[in-house]
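Tutorial sheet, problem 5. The two components below are modelled jointly, 508 residues in total.
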Amino acid sequence: MSADKNNEVIISVNELSKHFKNKTGKIYALDGITTDIRRGEVLVIIGPSGSGKSTFLRSLNLLERPTEGTITFEGVDITSPESDINKLRQKMGMVFQHFNLFPHLTILDNMTLAPRKLLKMSKEDAEAKALELLERVGLLDRADAYPSQLSGGQKQRIAIVRALCMSPDVLLFDEPTSALDPEMVGEVLDVMKALAKSGMTMAVVTHEMGFAKEVGSRVIFMDEGKIIEEGTPSEIFDNPQNERLQSFLAKVL
Amino acid sequence: MYNFILANRVALDLNSWFAKIKDEFYINFIAEDRYMYLVKGLWMTLRITFFAVLLGIALGVIAAIVRSTHDKTIKEMRPGLAKGLLIFFNAIVKLYLTVIRGTPVVVQLMIMYYIIFASSTNAMLVAVLAFGINSGAYVAEIIRSGIMSIDNGQFEAGRSLGFNYIQTMYYIVIPQALKNVLPALANEFIVLIKETSVSGYVGIMDLTRGGDVIRSRTFVAFMPLFAVAAIYLIIVVIFSKLVTVMERRLRNSER
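Model answer (structure tokens):
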């Protein structure tokens, strides 16, 4: 894919598990996940619903707390109680299925809030950066609008550039197109493709197999909290080994 | 002829009625500057209400944050000092809400004045504390419902950008929660203005007491009491109007 292959591991996940207890015993949402995400890579996570793919993604910035295992981000074990998760999250942007823009703030304020309060950027610098990003996604004219005035596709593009305003090292996407009307999926995927091309490290949970094939540098197939199969898009889509992956692909392709 | 007499009588009756009103008005409000009881009483009522509202909001926000933080995060928290403190403060806040909401405000006021602050000579300050602490309990539940009504995605978006829990509350959740509960909050303050009318129980010359003093001097109940009622009504109507304008402004900012 991208020429940027210095292969530095940016996130290292080791034996990650999350379980809930109920009367009959433990239920594993995640069951011993081990994988690495390298700089510049676009990792696409696919799988049936309830397979734990979103839980896995949300564990990477500790929105979900794993019960066992470790996640190392840029050399720091973020699962250890001593690590400053708020500081680390500044370097890990996240884009949600339901956008989660702040409805009481304008688009520009949505984007500049975190850089100003957390990175102590000046208002001018933060706004200059936000406007530049808005221009890149073609929404410069909406800077003073409120989220309720935007379409779903526009909201998700804003959510992406809001995360970019913090200059993250990794962007996590949790089903970014699942809540969109079909005609708006393309505009969001285009932004994500452009990002991938620019060398951004991305981890994407998605049902968009076309995106996975075209943009993914590596694809993980998950089911029942485990990684069932892992490989390049062509390995996964053209030559699936596992039976569950084969039946999954038969249903979605 | 008969009609003429009747008309005359009505006119006479009206005349004497007006005269009576005029007299009553004079002795109740003008004579010996009695209207000053109402003016001073109103000023006292407004001061007590204003400071009690401030105290109520401060206490209410703190109590609401403790309660909702407990309810939202306690399951996910690791055992430790922070968790212990949160459980402790949550228990205190729950006790506060139960006691305050379970007893009449006038009893709370008298307990404050005659027992807890028995040595204090500043009745107004005691009243502000009593009404503020009372109001805080109701404000707490209003704001807590506002916080709980905010979609969890807003929390997650704030946290994912790197804001800590308090910052997420402050910049993202509380502003939206307050906006959502503004009508309920306004209602609470309307109730509070009227509740201060029991201040007379601890010898404070508030608006209600002012009217009552006039009544006890002039032995006329109608005028002073209706005057007092009208003044409360006007204040509440003006306040409601202001809140409506504010709500519209806030809503406009999102359209």
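Marking note: Chain B has nine helices and no strands. Full credit if you identified this.
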